[in-house]
Design brief:
Keywords: ATP-binding, Coiled coil, Magnesium, Metal-binding, Nucleotide-binding. One of its GO terms (cellular component) is cytoplasm. This protein has 2 domains: 275 residues, Rossmann fold (3-Layer(aba) Sandwich), CATH 3.40.50.300; 64 residues, Ubiquitin-like (UB roll), CATH 3.10.20.30. By secondary structure, it is α/β, with parallel strands linked by helices. The chain has 14 helices and 12 strands.
Length: 363
């Protein structure tokens, strides 16, 4: 899973990236500090893996991972080349979802590029730049399609979908706002439009508000806005996440407790990403390794097998499946089988979050 962290300059974007990836991207109090996208790979926290690895005496644990792309601060006119222009807009096209960092704190020592704190204005600035970039690309594509569609009938349906999207973009609305059929969505997917990307709004607050943001007027505005958009909101304090950097798990837990927090902002952000993108994990465990595999909810057993290797998918016979809680409760796969808790599932079985699976195959 790839996530692009975007936002206006000086909203805490790179500070957040540094703290959650410990990748050491440059961070400073001036615009356009980030030019090329910094990339950091983050392990997805999953306590199930530790428990299963202990049960199986696994030599290693391989958690699921997320790639975070820290993309340069956007400004008005970015789609037309202002600031760093399309240099970084092109990077956003490669991600699965956008994490939009929105400044919801006041600090006279950190300048705002527009001179005042207004999260909804900031969100709309970024949304418009994404729309303008899509608009420019689609105008060229539609013009080319119109010529080809006269001779190639199979392109006419694609052309109609593109015209529908184009009309919405021209109204200043994102492509996400369109109610499209599954077939139309499939056609649109190949275009990788910026304004179709799911968005998580990451409201960056100060230390005093992270535990109780009910009185933070900026956060409340973002929550209301996101509700209308069908987007997720995660309230986070980039400074606290920065403080957690480098601490071991025990010290992190102790620090979070002193702040009155149950978990880090990173954990909450990851959960929101999984929820927004409709993702879950199935698990495999044995002496060699215990591993988490990320798949879409609704994935069949045979397609989940392909996540591990194409040969397993091609030669799929069955999936020996048990819920991780049942396996842990019994203490071993042998005992679980004796109690009939291990199910034999076929190709069309819909995988469930927390399934521990052994795929049988023959090629």
């Amino acid at each position: 899973m790839k996530l692009g962290i975007v936002g206006l300059p000086n909203v805490g974007k790179s500070t957040l990236f540094n703290s959650i990836t410990e990748a050491g991207a440059e961070s400073a109090n001036y615009p356009f500090c980030t030019i090329d996208p910094n990339v950091g790979v983050v392990d997805v926290p999953d306590e199930r893996l530790t428990l299963l690895a202990k049960l199986s005496n696994s030599k290693k644990i391989v958690p699921a991972s997320i790639e975070f792309y820290d993309i340069a601060g956007l400004v008005k006119g970015a789609s037309k080349g202002e600031g760093l222009g399309n240099k970084f807009l092109s990077h956003i096209r490669e991600v699965d979802a956008i994490v939009e960092v929105v400044r919801c704190f006041e600090d006279e020592n950190i300048v705002h590029v527009d001179g005042s704190i207004d999260p909804i204005r900031d969100i709309e600035t970024i949304d418009l730049e994404l729309i303008f970039s899509d608009l420019e690309m689609l105008e060229k594509r539609v013009s080319a399609l119109e010529k080809k569609a006269k001779a190639e009938k199979e392109l006419r349906e694609e052309l109609e979908v593109m015209k529908k999207v184009l009309s919405v973009l021209e109204e200043g609305k994102s492509a996400r706002s369109l109610d499209l059929s599954d077939e139309e969505k499939t056609i649109l997917k190949s275009y990788n439009l910026l304004s179709t990307k799911p968005i998580i709004y990451c409201a960056n607050v100060n230390e005093d508000d992270v535990n109780d943001y009910s009185k933070n007027k900026y956060v409340q505005k973002v929550i209301e806005y996101a509700k209308d958009q069908g987007s997720e909101v995660v309230v986070i304090c980039a400074r606290i996440e920065e403080e957690l950097t480098g601490l071991d798990e025990e010290d992190k837990k102790e620090y979070l407790e002193t702040m009155g927090l149950k978990e880090s902002g990173l954990n909450r952000l990851i959960k929101s990403c999984y929820s927004l993108l409709g993702l879950m994990s199935f698990l495999t465990t044995g002496e060699m390794e215990t591993r988490a595999w990320t798949i879409k909810k609704g994935t069949t057993a045979v397609n989940a097998a392909g996540k591990i290797h194409s040969d397993i998918q091609r030669g799929f016979i069955r999936a020996e499946t048990i819920n991780y809680k049942d396996l842990l409760a019994e203490g071993s796969l042998v005992k679980a089988k004796e109690k009939g808790l291990v199910r034999l599932e076929g190709k069309d079985y819909i995988m469930q979050d927390g399934d521990v699976v052994l795929f049988r195959f023959n090629v």
